């Protein structure tokens, strides 16, 4: 064991240093939704919480294609850095911004379409009215969100993740302030109720996009990648490359997020109390999940950089280190969820005993699937570092839509287990993915030729 630790100590240390800022920055993506739910639940009650919470889930579902798709840019930047190719890094940055803009517009229109058909989701009239308007505003906010994520890929790929961290923390503070001011109506600002929360998220995400792009263009750390001669280089090939690698990765993320969004709809079929309880528990689980995605991103960057250097030993060690880190990391919230579930729920709602009781039981379920959730998302990151994009999409479809969702429906409705049955199905899907993704990674590593330095798209 001591020999193993000495062998992996440098890799573990480097992955931890890279992971921590990315973890916090990734956490900021979901914490905006958590902040919205916290303020809406505490200030406005259970029905507005159900409507806003469902819209946050639906918005995250639609945006997941862009969020997952753009994350491939960091791995490509890291590979280019391994080859010391500054011009390539510049082209990837500019191409990433173009892809972010197009995805923001396209998925924003999808979000508008989902809002139009909101009444088809089987929710109560009150939840439908609140949720539709909330979703329209969140759909617009996808454009600045994607621009921020695209620009952040340059920072992460070059191992400067603290920049996005600081901007994210400032945006979270701004979002909390705007939530309170716009929901309640403070000073000259009108009381907009639940829609004020969505507007606060739009303004905060706009700040994030503007701040990170301005910082990158003006800070000396990045000047080597913005030589005037690079601006003449065409980026059409890189746009196609990002789309070719990113869209399958985006749909991999989509299938997982869709599973949880559809689970929220199922919870809504059980009643407003069940839906509100589900949103509380899923908020907590999404916090730890997004933190695990930080380790996943760090693992992807470390794997891709090692691949760029044609160091297969380093590729394998980067993957193993990421898996061990997420195993230890996700074990901590698992213990907290299992032992402090009532206290955690009290942060969201206190004046509705039935919702709190259901939510507390679901938080216990969330504790059980923490390890599976962490391992599967790190497995996706490891495969992204190898530019493996097609087979992970198929694995996600199988694990979540063939196993997870059907089991959720059968247990929740046929066996009358309610929300608990829905969450057992989620656990089954996550566990299957947690088994298959690492197996795929180590199988591919054994197949890579030592002199492979070019980006490869693996197919089934």
Automatic annotation (TrEMBL):
Signal peptide: none annotated. It is found in: Cell membrane. Its main location: membrane. It is a multi-pass membrane protein. It comes from the Bacteria. InterPro entries: MATE_fam (IPR002528), MATE_MdtK (IPR050222), MdtK-like (IPR048279). The chain crosses the membrane at residues 12-34, 54-77, 97-118, 130-151, 163-183, 195-216, 242-270, 276-299, 320-340, 352-372, 393-414, 420-439. This is Multidrug-efflux transporter. Pfam families: MatE. GO terms for cellular component: plasma membrane. One of its GO terms (molecular function) is antiporter activity. It comes from Larkinella punicea. GO terms for biological process: monoatomic ion transport. Keywords: Antiport, Cell membrane, Ion transport, Membrane, Transmembrane, Transmembrane helix, Transport.
């Amino acid at each position: 064991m001591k020999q193993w630790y000495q062998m992996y100590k440098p890799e573990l240390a480097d992955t931890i240093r890279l992971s921590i800022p990315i973890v916090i920055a990734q956490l900021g993506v979901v914490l905006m939704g958590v902040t919205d739910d916290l303020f809406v639940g505490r200030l406005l009650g259970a029905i507005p919480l159900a409507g806003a919470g469902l819209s946050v889930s639906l918005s995250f579902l639609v945006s997941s294609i862009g969020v997952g798709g753009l994350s491939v840019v960091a791995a490509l930047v890291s590979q280019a850095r391994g080859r010391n190719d500054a011009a390539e890094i510049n082209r990837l940055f500019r191409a990433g911004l173009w892809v972010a803009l197009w995805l923001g517009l396209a998925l924003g229109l999808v979000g508008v379409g989902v809002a139009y058909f909101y009444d088809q989701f089987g929710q109560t009239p009150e939840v439908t009215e609140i949720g539709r308007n909330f979703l329209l505003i969140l759909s617009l906010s996808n454009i600045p969100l994607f621009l921020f994520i695209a620009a952040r890929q340059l920072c992460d790929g070059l191992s400067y993740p603290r920049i996005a961290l600081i901007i994210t923390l400032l945006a979270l503070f701004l979002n909390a302030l705007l939530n309170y001011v716009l929901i309640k109506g403070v000073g000259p600002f009108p009381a907009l109720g639940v829609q004020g929360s969505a507007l606060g998220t739009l303004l905060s995400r706009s700040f994030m996009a503007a701040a990170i792009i301005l910082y990158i263009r003006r800070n000396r750390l990045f000047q080597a990648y913005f030589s005037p001669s690079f601006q003449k280089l065409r980026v059409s090939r890189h746009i196609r490359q990002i789309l070719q690698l990113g869209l399958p990765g985006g749909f991999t993320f989509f299938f997982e997020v869709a599973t949880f969004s559809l689970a929220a709809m199922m919870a809504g079929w059980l009643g407003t109390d069940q839906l509100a309880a589900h949103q509380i528990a899923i908020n907590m689980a999404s916090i730890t999940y997004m933190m695990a995605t930080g380790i996943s991103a760090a693992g992807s960057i470390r794997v891709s950089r090692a691949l760029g250097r044609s160091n297969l030993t380093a590729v394998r060690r980067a993957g193993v280190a990421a898996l061990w880190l997420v195993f230890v990391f996700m074990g901590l919230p698992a213990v907290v969820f299992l032992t402090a579930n009532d206290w955690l729920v009290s942060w969201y709602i206190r004046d509705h005993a039935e919702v709190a009781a259901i939510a507390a039981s679901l938080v216990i379920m969330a504790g059980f699937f923490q390890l599976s959730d962490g391992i599967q998302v790190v497995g996706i990151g490891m495969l992204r570092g190898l530019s493996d994009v097609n087979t992970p999409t198929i694995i996600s479809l199988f694990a979540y839509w063939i196993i997870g969702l059907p089991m959720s429906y059968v247990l929740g409705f046929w066996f009358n287990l309610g929300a608990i049955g829905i969450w057992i199905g989620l656990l089954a899907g996550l566990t299957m993915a947690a088994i298959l993704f690492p197996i795929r990674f180590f199988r591919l590593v054994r197949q890579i030729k030592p002199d492979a330095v070019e980006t490869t798209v693996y197919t089934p």
